[in-house]
Specification:
Its main location: membrane. InterPro entries: GPCR_Rhodpsn (IPR000276), GPCR_Rhodpsn_7TM (IPR017452), NPS_rcpt (IPR027294). 77% of the residues lie in helices and 0% in strands. The chain is mostly helical. The protein has a single domain, classed as Up-down Bundle (Rhopdopsin 7-helix transmembrane proteins). The radius of gyration is 23 Å and the shape is globular. The termini are far apart.
Length: 320
């Protein structure tokens, strides 16, 4: 640590690492979410209370996925934003809506599963699709209110060909760190604790009650595994490293230098790639919640195998 001018951080890693990740997530996520939403809408009469949240989860994913091509262009041009300040803010706003909307809807799914298993008689017939729609609207509003202050921070640097900051530019980084910490607590920590408490109690009930339906137990354990996967890979590393990177920038601005600033920046960029994977991993909830989708997957695989065999059979017949 010293009080001299700090060594500048190399930003080349983000330009090399993030574009391939964004391209893969865009292709896989758009295909999986589009197909999942189409299947749910085609079977609307079968849609239950939880699947209303699943539909909103898919909409949040598509909202973010549509901005990824612009971010790919941004990083391919050496982190130079050419689409204007307003669209930069819109792009970052869509990311935040996707991230915290996904966390919010996953929390709702966890609470509904908890009520259905732990208090089935109290909620049976009392919670309707209308209630689920109203709760979904509330989630969107709360996430929007949390994300709105981010729009008022400076996102671009100097001119139209400058940077499009994920957070904000250097002059406002101290204020943004305070905002980010509060945002992390309300948008991530509280929903995570609610989800953990719900599934902790659910596991206790499933283990203690031998009368619990085995199919229900398996479904709950699978959903719990999916949520643990999402939180462990996508959400926890991102929030920890985002705030640590902001703190590193604050120290650098105050001429307090640390040797780990480069490593924190690289780790944060990796976490950004991981957090966008949630848009490709969220369709796992479709596979868990809808029995028709796995059957359709098997049909598609069988058709694919048949299509692969047909040219071979045709060529053999031609030779004969």
């Amino acid at each position: 640590m010293n009080n001299t001018s700090c060594r500048s951080i190399s930003f080349d890693f983000a330009s090399k690492f993030l574009p391939p990740v964004f391209v893969i997530v865009f292709i896989v996520g758009l295909t999986a979410n589009g197909w999942g939403l189409k299947t749910l809408l085609q079977n609307w009469r079968k849609v239950g209370n939880v699947n209303v949240f699943v539909i909103n989860l898919g909409l949040a994913d598509i909202l973010y996925l549509l901005t990824l091509p612009f971010l790919v262009v941004y990083y391919f041009k050496g982190s130079k934003w050419i689409f204007g300040d307003t669209f930069c803010k819109i792009t970052r706003f869509c990311f935040n809506m996707n991230l915290y909307g996904s966390i919010g809807f996953l929390t709702c799914i966890s609470v509904y599963r908890y009520l259905a298993i732990v208090h089935p008689m109290k909620v049976l017939g009392r919670i309707t699709v209308t209630h689920s729609v109203a709760i979904s609207v509330m989630v969107w509003l709360l996430v929007g209110v949390q994300s709105l202050p981010d729009m008022f921070y400076t996102k671009t640097y100097r001119n139209r060909t400058g940077k499009c900051y994920e957070t904000t530019s250097k002059p406002y980084v101290e204020d943004y760190l305070k905002y980010s910490l509060g945002w992390t607590f309300t948008g991530f920590c509280i929903p995570s604790l609610i989800t953990l408490a719900c599934y902790g109690h659910v596991i206790f009930i499933l283990c203690c009650k031998n009368t619990t339906d085995k199919v229900l137990r398996q479904k709950c354990l699978k959903l719990m595994f999916i949520l643990i996967l999402l939180f462990s890979i996508c959400y926890i590393p991102f929030h920890l490293l985002k705030n640590l990177n902001l703190w590193s920038r604050v120290l650098s601005k105050q001429k307090i230098c640390h040797g780990w600033a480069d490593r924190v920046y690289i780790a944060h960029q990796i976490s950004r790639g991981l957090v966008c994977l949630n848009s490709a991993l969220n369709p796992l909830v479709y596979l868990h919640g809808n029995r028709d989708i796995p059957a359709q997957l098997r049909q598609l695989l069988q058709r694919g195998r048949q299509d692969c065999r047909r040219p071979t059979t045709h060529s053999q017949n031609t030779l004969v």
